[in-house]
Amino acid sequence: MEAAERKKLIELTGATKIFGKGELENTVLNGVNLTIYEGDFLMIVGKSGSGKTTLMNTIGFLDRLTTGTYSFLGDDVSQLNENKKSDIRNQYFGFIFQQFFLIDSLNVAQNVELPLVYGGKLNKRERLSASEKYLGLVGIPEKVKAKTKELSGGQQQRVAIARALINEPLLIMADEPTGALDSETGNGVMELLKELNKQGKTIIMVTHDEDLLQYATRVIRMHDGSFVEEGAAG
């Protein structure tokens, strides 16, 4: 489906992010314009310091723009306070990181259900049922009661993906999700993300690994806070 026929989720216009002041001023995003559509699997590529993580953090309501506008589902959200940004983040976004951020004192199901615990909407039985559903979706239903320390790196990342999905987010934000994995395990995680994208999930991913670009539908290359190239993958 062409982008024009799909729902526009995010639009950044003249997005600039500056850290520091005076002689220490550092422009990390430099007038970026970006539109993200429903169903995109967008990969943001660039060397360390190129601005890709700051762009990801801005999209995910973790950083505020210095100048420019951010439209989310048609509404200008550039100047929202932290509470409202947190509400949007919790409702619409699922986050996957290079480090898995699992809690060792909790079993796998308890880690997966944490977003539901914070949301306070479901009882204990309903949360367990949802955890089982998403652990099945990521291919490790048998690990529901396992301790996280008993899992391989790839299994831990799948737990983190299940946790990111359990709130049924509109967008999945993945920051170097295979960075701590060997290539074979990482490819398994990427195949899972590809399948989720085929099912309709919009995915925005930061990576430095050129081999992973085959999984994207769109690729943006960044250098010194600007886009140097944008196009289809492959």
How many separate domains? Answer: 1
Distance linking N and C termini: 18 Å
The tally of beta strands, per DSSP, is 10
Class derived from helix and strand content: alpha/beta
CATH class (first level) name? Alpha Beta
CATH-scheme architecture:
3-Layer(aba) Sandwich
Helicity, as a percent range: 25-40%
What global shape is seen?
globular
SSE topology string? EEEHEEHEHHHHEHEEE
- The fourth-level CATH homologous superfamily is P-loop containing nucleotide triphosphate hydrolases
Unreliable segments (pLDDT under 50, ≥5 consecutive)? none
Name the average pLDDT. Answer: 91
In brief:
By secondary structure, this protein is of the alpha/beta class. The protein has helices spanning 52-59, 82-92, 108-112, 114-119, 124-137, 153-165, 183-198; strands spanning 8-19, 26-37, 41-45, 67-72, 75-76, 93-97, 171-175, 202-207, 218-223, 226-231.
Walkthrough of the structure:
The protein has 234 residues and is α/β, with parallel strands linked by helices. The protein has a single domain, classed as P-loop containing nucleotide triphosphate hydrolases (Rossmann fold), CATH 3.40.50. It contains 7 helices and 10 strands. The chain has helices at 52-59, 82-92, 108-112, 114-119, 124-137, 153-165, 183-198, and strands at residues 8-19, 26-37, 41-45, 67-72, 75-76, 93-97, 171-175, 202-207, 218-223, 226-231. The strands form 2 sheets. The protein has a 6-stranded mixed β-sheet with strand order 6-7-8-3-9-10, with helices on both faces. Strands 2-1-4-5 form a 4-stranded antiparallel β-sheet, covered by helices on one side. α5 packs across α6 (153-165) and α6 (153-165) packs parallel to α7 (183-198). 38% of the residues are buried. The mean pLDDT is 91.
